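Below sits my pick:
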Amino acid sequence: MKKLFGGINLTWLKLVIFAIIAGVYTAVIAMIPELVYTSFNTITVTFEVWILFGIIIIMNSKSNLDSGLKCFVFFLISQPLVYIIQDMVNGSELFHTYYRFWIVWTIACFPMGFIGYYMKKDKWWGYLILLPMILFVGMEYSLYLSDFIFAMPRYILIVLFCIGTMIIYPLYIFNDKKIRNVGVIISGVLIAIITLFGVLNPPVYETQIMFNNKEHPFNDTYRAYLSDSKYGEVSIKYYESVEGYMLNAKFKKAGTTDLIIESPDGTKNEYSISIKRSTYKITKK
């Protein structure tokens, strides 16, 4: 592990190969529908894995300038590849849609890599440079912990990845024992606080899942419920904005259950509903 954070002879050829592999891998993952809403897909949408790549480059660079340039070139190659490959395969226009956002981060990689190199000086101010990255990973951990609680065991790998890197960074970047110990303690406290908050505030996916119409008739005299309440609750509400009744859902857990809409005379319309973290699918039974 220590070799990963300072023991690699990171030549420019190795860097370019690394960037190409990272870009191609991310593009392939993004094009596999079965990996959506899994830990593997997170590299396509959030920063935690890319932060690891950046730190590896910084710790294996030979100078501030070398670090800044290599971080810049790595992201200059890898990020466009992610979109270009998807556009070539799917005939989409992701590059034109999204890369204008990522080019800003790519440009920022030069000063971040330049400044980040000071972590190698093994000083307290080096840890202060690392700390924002720890906090950033902590934010991602909070996000995926919520997703994990909602859709166990999905996202368990990325949750463990975030926890692991928050501990590993101070432990293996610095040689000074005091800096390492303080860094691990701070990471541990952050992990504990985020975990406690996530457990005490479990996620709820609230949405409107059905509109009153000829196909799905209901009003406030009807009763709506899920066959298994562990997945959440549903209720019929009147919305002034649409001047009609809608079925409001507060989902608490991913999975499949039955939705029942019961009329005043006892007639039941039953549906199978498949719940995911931020989407659902309803099928009439």
About this structure: The chain has a mean pLDDT of 92. The first helix runs from residue 12 to 30.
